[in-house]
Amino acid sequence: xxxxxxxxxxxxxxxxxxxxxxxxxxxxxxxxxxxxxxxxxxxxxxxxxxxxxxxxxxxxxxxxxxxxxxxxxxxxxxxxxxxxxxxxxxxxxxxxxxxxxxxxxxxxxxxxxxxxxxxxxxxxxxxxxxxxxxxxxxxx
Length: 140
Known about the structure:
The protein is mainly beta. 5% of the residues lie in helices and 35% in strands. It is built from one helix and ten strands; from the N terminus they run E-E-E-H-E-E-E-E-E-E-E. The N and C termini lie far apart (31 Å).
């Protein structure tokens, strides 16, 4: 992978770059991600927040409890997931990366919510809940 890693929204109004390698690349099958992305499964690239710099138009955010999901106000493209329980981490949607082919997911999260017709016959580890435990030890 070549640094920096860059990406943005469909219309180009929101741009970002990461100055470090990701700490996590995964699929998520949860219903919340399905609703937020409009896709049957989402994929995320996790970066330390302090390695990300946004430019252009500031993304808008939808907040629900400890979770904030950012998106472009102009084109609606989803950009990132932030969970205040995971301090210092930002999860960029794989589709927002300029070179998504460079980020191969390494696991599946929330497989208990996976749609029954979605078949991904890989040998990746599958987590019933979150693949990243919260500081309180929960997987929610």
